[in-house]
Amino acid sequence: MNSSDNxxxxxxxxxxxxxxxxxxxxxxxxxxxxxxxxxxxATDDQPVSxxxxxxxxxxxxxxxxxxxxxxxxxxxMDEWDLCTQGRLSEQDILQGYAQxxxxxxxxxxxxxxxxxxxxxxxxxxxxxxCLPVSWDxxxxxxxxxxxxxxxxxxxxxxxxxxxxVEFYLSQRTHIExxxxxxxxxxPGKGDIDGLAVDGDASEEAxxxxxxxxxxxRLVNDMFARAVEMTAxxxxxxxxxxxxxxxxxxxxxxxxxxxxxIASYSAIASRLKLIGGLNIAxxxxxxxxxxxxxxxRSQIDVRLSTVPSMHGESIVLRILRKNIxxxxxxxxxxxxxxxxRFAQLIKLPHGMVxxxxxxxxGKTTTLYCVMNLLDSEEKKIITIExxxxxxxxxxxxxxxxxxxxLTFAGGLRHIVRQDxxxxxxxxxxxxxxxxxxxxAALTGHLVLSTLHTNxxxxxxxxxxxxxxxxxxxxxxxVGVLSQRLIRKVCAVCKxxxxxxxxxxxxxxxxxxxxxxxxxxxxxIRPCRNCAGSGFRDRVGIFEFLAVDDDxxxxxxxxxxxxxxxxxxxxxxMRTLREDGESKAxxxxxxxxxxxxxxxxxx
Length: 601
Ligand SMILES: [Zn+2]
Fold this sequence. Notes:
The protein is of the alpha/beta class. Helix 18 packs antiparallel against helix 19. The structure holds zinc ion (ZN). Zinc ion binds next to loops.
C-alpha cells in the first residue's frame, strides 16, 4: 500500500513551495554535493541542489530565543545544542527550518503506518537523518530532520536508488524513533536503542545514559509536547514489551509516545537526574521536584516513581508557573458575575466559598482571586495542600499532616500573624470550619473551598459539620459553585476535521484505488484537538450572594430547595443556565453542559 501513497501538500497554501521548484532551478552551489564527474552536463542527470540559507535559519532560530542571545558564530546544527540545553524546543527548530526553507512539514500523523524501505541501511538513514515515508518506482517522499544536506541526499537517491526525491521536514526525535523501530540495525550514534542497559548497571553507567543527546532530546520533546498539549500529568509506563508515555489532557489520559522499551532505563535515568532523585535506586518509591524552562513556558514538575513489574512507573505532575494567566476572565466568568465577585473579595471581612466536586477547578478560581488581591497593602497568607503555584508577595504554607501541620493547626497560627486575607485550601472538618469562620468574624477575609454539589449545598454542609447556624449566617458572604466543561475546538469548530489552510494540517493523504485509479482522500483528524472536537476547558458558574433573605433562611434552617428558590427569586443564575448560555454562544455544546451538570457525585 505504501507504494501508492503519496503525501500531498495543501493545494491552496501558496506559502508552501513544492520542494521540486528548487531542484534544477538553481545551479549547484557550495552547499551542494560534489557531483560525480562526467554527467554534470546532462540536464536531467544534473545533481540536484538546494541553497540552504544559513543566515535565514539563524535569524528564525534567533526569534525563538527568549534571552535575545546573539547567534553571531552560528553554524549549521548549532540549534541542536540549544535544543539539548532546553533553550529551544524541537518544534521551534522545525518551524524555523520550515520558514527559512519553505519546505513542507509532516507532523506525527503523517508518519503513522509507514513501512521500511528495502535496500537501504539503518546507518545511512541515521547518518543523514532521513526517513522514507512513501514511494513508488520513480520517486520517494523523504522526511528529513534538517535541511542542510538535501543536495547530497537527493543525489544519492537519484543515482543509487533511481528515485526523484520530494523532501519534507519532520521532528528529529520522531525520525530517530521510527528508524529505530523500522530498520534492522546495529546500535549506533544517535540511536536510542543502543542505550539499553541491564538491570544492575552502575550509577555511573546510568548517569552517562541520562546525558546522551538523543535521550536529552527525547525527554525535552516529551515536556515540550506536554506543554503544547496543555497536559497536567505525564505517565511513563514500562510493560514487558513496550513503553507507553501517556498525557492527561483535559482530565483524560491519552498515549502520546511509544519509544522502544530498550530506551526505558535511559529515559528513567534522565527523569531522575532532572528531578534530583537517586539515579541508582530502582527498588523503592521516590519523590522529587524541579523547575524547567520549556520553550517560553516556565513549569514546575513533581516526579513520583513507584517500582512495578517491568521497571518503575514514573508520573510527572506539571504545574505551569505563569500565574499571570490566571484571570477570572480566562476561566470563563462572565463580566457581570466578575464584577459582583470582585466587589465581594474587597470586603474587609467575611467568608467566601468556592464549591464543586473534585476536578471542578476550585483551586484555579482561588488563584485567580489571589491575582486580584492587593498583596502590596494587604497581608495575604495561604494554607494549601499542595501549594500549586507560588505567588509573589503572598505567604504560602504547605499542609504537612505527618508533622502535625494540618489545615486547622496551621490556621490557628496564621491568625496570629496579623493577616488581612486568609486562603484555606479546603474545609474538610468542623475544627477547620470553626477556626475559619471565627477568623472571618474577627476582621479577616477568608477564602476557601468545600466539596459540595451546589452553592446552597455549602450551607447545609457547614450545618452538617456542626457549625452553628448564626455563625454561618453572620460570616458567609457568598458561595461560588462551579464545574469545568470542555470548549469546542477553535481550529475545527468541533468537527474534529482539519481546517483548510491550517498550516500544520499539511498531511492529508491521497490514496489511489489501484483498480479504478480513483483518488480518495483520507483526512487526518484535527491536530489541535486530536479529532475530539474539544480543546481546553472553561468554567460554568452559579453564584449565591448571601443577602438578608438567605440569612433568614439559614436562621430558620430551611431546606436546600427552599434556599435555592429564594436565591433564584433574588437573581441567582444556575450552573445549567450559565452552561446553556455558553452553549448558545458556541463556546461549548449543550451535550457537554448536560454531562457536566449531571456528573455530580
Ligand atoms: Zn479540532
